[in-house]
């Protein structure tokens, strides 16, 4: 089966995840802080060079997960490829990523904040730390008002800014959302969109953006065509 072309919709944020072929370390091993710091520096350089405004980011031992708005259809591809080249040259030899990175355009005003919470919650869900804000290689601390040294990497999305009129109000509101976490249904919607590489949004939004998208944005209906469609098909 031919693989899907990249799905791109102008001016929409994308949720992106690339998994390493070989993890930097097992979760039970000492944290590979030096390698994660190096990777973070490369992420900063590539995001700036390739034109990706990062709204959220996460580096784990086995993956990179990002939420950002690319300036063009190829920006995220260039970013991931650039990270792969840097890692291959300066951290490990040979192939870096397990396969193609996954991506999903995200509906502003409805799914940006849930996608951000999903991303920043992964370290706690995967048992790296007991709370999202305690993982240093993530945007969670910056968004929650906790001490963070990488705030310059972020360009917060409008949905985050709308949480409050001051930085303190936004951080407090977001911290509450992050502590509460997502419902199982929300998390499943995000997971299915990302791993299926489909757009994440509500029906009216999806209908509105289909004409601007680079390909089909939702899966085709399963099963045989409807009876009236079969009746119109010439028999040969």
Question: Can you put this structure into words, describing what you see?
Answer:
It is a single chain. It contains 9 helices and 4 strands. The chain has 236 residues and is α+β, with helices and mostly antiparallel strands. It has a single domain (14-209), classed as 2-Layer Sandwich (Alpha-Beta Plaits). Helix 1 runs antiparallel to helix 2. It starts with 13 loop residues before the first strand and ends in a 5-residue tail after the last helix. Mean pLDDT is 89; it is low at 228-236.
The quaternary state of the protein chains shown equals single chain
Order of helices and strands: EHEEHEHHHHHHH
Strand order of the largest sheet: 2-3-1-4
Quickly count the domains: 1
CATH class: Alpha Beta
Stretches where pLDDT is under 50 for at least 5 consecutive residues are 228-236
* Major pleated sheet: 4 strands, antiparallel
CATH fold annotation:
Alpha-Beta Plaits
Keywords:
Alpha-Beta Plaits; 9 helices; 41% helix; 236 residues; four-stranded antiparallel β-sheet; alpha+beta; single chain; disordered C terminus
What's the quick description here?
The chain is an alpha+beta fold and 236 residues long.
Please render the helix and strand layout as text.
Layout: E1 14-19, H1 33-50, E2 52-59, E3 63-70, H2 75-90, E4 102-105, H3 112-125, H4 140-144, H5 158-161, H6 167-180, H7 184-196, H8 203-209, H9 227-231
């Amino acid at each position: 089966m031919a693989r899907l072309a990249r799905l791109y919709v102008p001016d929409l944020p994308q949720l992106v995840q690339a998994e390493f072929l070989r993890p930097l370390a097992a979760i039970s091993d000492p944290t590979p802080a030096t390698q994660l710091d190096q990777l973070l520096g490369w992420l900063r350089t590539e995001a700036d060079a390739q034109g990706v405004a990062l709204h959220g980011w996460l580096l784990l031992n086995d993956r990179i997960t990002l939420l950002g708005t690319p300036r063009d259809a190829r920006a995220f591809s260039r970013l991931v490829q650039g990270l792969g080249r840097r890692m291959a040259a300066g951290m490990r030899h040979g192939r870096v990523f397990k396969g193609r990175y996954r991506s999903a355009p995200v509906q502003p005003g409805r799914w940006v904040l849930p996608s951000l919470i999903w991303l920043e919650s992964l370290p706690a869900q995967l048992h790296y730390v007991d709370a999202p804000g305690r993982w240093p290689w993530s945007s969670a601390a910056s968004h929650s008002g906790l001490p963070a040294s990488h705030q310059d990497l972020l360009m917060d999305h409008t949905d985050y800014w709308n949480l409050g009129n001051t930085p303190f109000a936004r951080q407090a509101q977001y911290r509450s959302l992050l502590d509460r976490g997502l419902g199982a249904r929300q998390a499943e919607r995000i997971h299915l969109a990302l791993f299926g590489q489909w757009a994440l949004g509500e029906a009216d939004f999806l209908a509105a953006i289909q004409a601007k998208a680079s390909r089909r944005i939702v899966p085709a209906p399963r099963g045989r065509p409807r009876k009236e469609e079969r009746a119109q098909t010439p028999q040969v």
